[in-house]
Amino acid sequence: MKEYFLKKIHHPREGELYQFLELDAQTGQEQIIDPFESGMLQLYPEKEPASDVFTITSKRGADATGFYRGEKFVVQRGSKFAASTSPKCPKKYIKLRENLMLDKLLVPFQHQLLLMEDTEFNSPMMAMGAVIGGWVRGSHDWKEAEKN
What is the DSSP string of 25-93? Predict the structure, then answer.
């Protein structure tokens, strides 16, 4: 059985970074992994019937998926948030992103911020502002994902 975990490291040039590791329980060996290729960040199957999935991307690096759960909007685990915020980003979105980082739900990964768990937002607009790190006009930028 393999176990996955994060390890915070300090890089002399890049500053604070995170490594994604896999631990082999039998040997005790740790191996650095890519969280997407390893399956660490596979989306969990939904317990309820699958709802429509929406996506959003931005020029600054956001690449996220989400769906409605009742009145809430859920951004899915493995979504990538823009690493920076725009100069016009409202303080409420900056604070929301900071809280997600403090709760270790959002971690730096390859010039983006990676969401470690499905996260509920009060609205798709709040989710979009946090994901893109900028000012938003409405939920129109969440596009329905193509169905497989």
Answer: TTT--EEE--TTTTSTTPPPPPSSPP--EEEEE-TTS-EEEEEEETTEEEEPTT-EEESS--TT--HHH
Burial of 76 (0-12, 13-18, 19+ CB in 10 A): buried
- pLDDT tens for the chain, 148 residues long, are 567 666 777 777 766 666 777 777 788 788 877 776 766 665 544 444 457 899 999 888 899 999 999 999 999 999 999 999 999 899 999 999 999 999 989 998 888 999 999 999 999 999 999 999 998 776 558 988 876 5
Structure tokens at 112: 């983006």
C-alpha 103: how far from chain center: 13
